[in-house]
Design brief:
Pfam families: ATP-gua_Ptrans, ATP-gua_PtransN. The protein is an alpha+beta fold. It has 13 helices and 10 strands. It binds adenosine-5'-triphosphate (ATP). The site of adenosine-5'-triphosphate has 17 residues, from β1 and β8.
C-alpha cells in the first residue's frame, strides 16, 4: 500500500503532467481502487507505476493483466474511451473483410512508400501481463507460443530465434532493419516490460521476413506482416491468414465490448496498427501536419518506432483508432489516410 500511495503522491505533484491517467484517476477513484487485487494478483500500483514515474506519458496506465480490465475498469474504461474517442465500449466482433480488400498498390510508382507493415497484438488468456508474471511464466508462455508457431505451413512457415544467446550484432542488425524490438522504451521499462530480459523473448520469422512474430515483447504475441513497397492488400491478407490459423491453436484474451485485450489500453480492440514508412518531407514541414493527420484519424511517428524522430523526411503513418471499429474499417481508415497524405505531398511538390 505504501507503494501505491507514493506513486499517487508523485502523480499529484507532477503539475505539468497531461497524461490520460492524471486526467481520469480522480482522488475518489484512487481511494476506491487502491486496495483491490485481480485474480492474477495485480494491483493499481502495477497499472499506474509507469505513468507516475514518467509524467510525460501520453496514456500513463497499463492493465496489470486481463482481469485488470474488469477490476480497474472505473479508471481504465475512462482512459480507453478518451484515447479511442468513443462514448461507449461496444467494440464489434472481429471482421477482417477479406473479400472486400480489392484495392491496388497504394504507391504504384514506388517513389514514396518505402515499406508497409500491419501488426496485431494477442495475449494468452491464462497469463497476466508483465507486472504480474514471473520468469517461469515467461518461459512457459514462450514454449506454448513456439509450439503453436512451429505448426504453421506454406508462406507462414518459419523459425523461432530466442533472444537469449542471440549475438548483439545480429540483434542490432535486425532492429536497425525494423524487424526486431529492443529494450529501450522507458515507459515500458517502468511498467516491468523488460523484467528478466532477455529470458522468454524472441522472434519467429519466415525466411523472407515477410511474416514475423514477436514473443513476449510488450504483448505476449505480436503478429506482424511487412514488406517493401505499398502493397497493403498483400501485407494485410498475409496477416489475416496468420491470425486465423493462430486463433485455432491458442486461446486469446478477449472481453465483450473491448475486443482483444493487450497490455496497453491504447492497443486493445482490433489491436491493429497498419503503417507505411513514407517520404513526405514537404507535408511534414508544414505547421498543419499534425492537424492534417488528426483529422484523418492517422498518426505520424519517427521511423524507428514510437517516440523516435523522423529520418530524412520519412515518417511512419498509421491508423490511430483500434477500438470501436472492425479490422476492415481500421485498414480502410489507414488506406484513406495514406492516400490523402500522398495527394497532399504531391500538391505541395507541384506534381
Ligand atoms: N511500415 C513500416 N515499414 C517498416 N518498418 C516499420 C513500419 N512500421 C513500423 N515499423 C518498424 O517496426 C518497429 C516497431 O515500431 P513501433 O514500436 O513504433 O510500433 P509497433 O510494433 O506497432 O508497437 P507499439 O505501437 O506498441 O509501439 C520499428 O522498428 C519500426 O521502424
Amino acid at each position: 500500500m505504501a507503494d501505491v500511495e507514493a506513486l499517487w503522491k508523485k502523480l499529484q505533484g507532477a503539475a505539468n503532467c497531461k497524461s490520460l491517467l492524471k486526467k481520469h484517476l480522480t482522488p475518489d477513484l484512487f481511494t476506491k481502487l487502491k486496495g483491490l487485487k485481480t485474480k492474477f494478483g495485480g494491483t493499481l500500483a502495477d497499472c499506474i507505476r509507469s505513468g507516475c514515474e514518467n509524467p510525460d506519458s501520453g496514456v500513463g496506465i497499463y492493465a496489470c493483466d486481463p482481469d485488470g480490465y474488469t477490476v480497474f475498469a472505473p479508471v481504465l474504461d475512462a482512459v480507453i474511451k478518451d484515447y479511442h474517442k468513443v462514448d461507449k465500449l461496444n467494440h464489434p466482433t472481429p471482421n477482417f473483410g477479406k473479400e472486400k480488400i480489392t484495392f491496388p498498390n497504394l504507391d504504384p510508382s514506388g517513389e514514396m512508400i518505402v515499406s508497409t507493415r500491419v501488426r496485431v497484438g494477442r495475449s494468452h488468456d491464462s497469463y497476466g501481463f508483465p507486472p504480474v508474471i514471473t520468469k517461469e511464466d515467461r518461459v512457459n508462455m514462450e514454449k506454448i507460443t513456439v509450439a503453436a508457431l512451429s505448426t504453421l505451413e506454406g508462406p507462414l512457415k518459419g523459425t523461432y530465434y530466442p533472444l537469449t544467446g542471440m549475438s548483439k550484432e545480429v540483434q542490432k542488425q535486425l532492429t536497425d532493419d525494423h524487424f526486431l524490438f529492443n529494450d529501450s522504451d522507458r515507459f515500458l521499462k517502468a511498467a516491468s516490460g523488460y523484467d528478466d530480459w532477455p529470458t522468454g523473448r524472441g522472434i519467429f520469422h519466415t525466411p523472407d521476413k515477410k511474416f514475423l512474430v514477436w514473443v513476449n515483447e510488450e504483448d505476449h504475441l505480436r503478429l506482424i506482416s511487412m514488406q517493401q513497397g505499398g502493397d497493403l492488400k498483400e501485407v494485410y491478407l498475409r496477416l489475416v491468414s496468420a491470425i486465423e490459423t493462430m486463433e485455432k491453436k491458442l486461446s486469446f484474451a478477449k472481453r465483450d465490448g473491448l475486443g482483444y485485450l493487450t497490455f496497453c489500453p491504447s492497443n486493445l480492440g482490433t489491436t491493429l496498427r497498419a503503417s507505411v514508412h513514407i517520404k513526405i518531407p514537404k507535408l511534414a514541414a508544414t505547421p498543419e501536419f499534425k492537424e492534417f493527420c488528426d483529422k484523418l484519424n492517422i498518426q505520424a511517428r519517427g521511423i524507428h518506432g514510437e517516440h523516435t524522430e523522423s529520418v530524412g523526411g520519412v515518417y511512419d503513418i498509421s491508423n490511430k483508432r483500434r477500438l470501436g471499429l472492425s479490422e476492415f474499417d481500421a485498414i480502410m481508415e489507414m488506406k484513406n489516410g495514406v492516400e490523402a497524405v500522398i495527394k497532399k505531398e504531391k500538391e505541395l511538390s507541384g506534381k
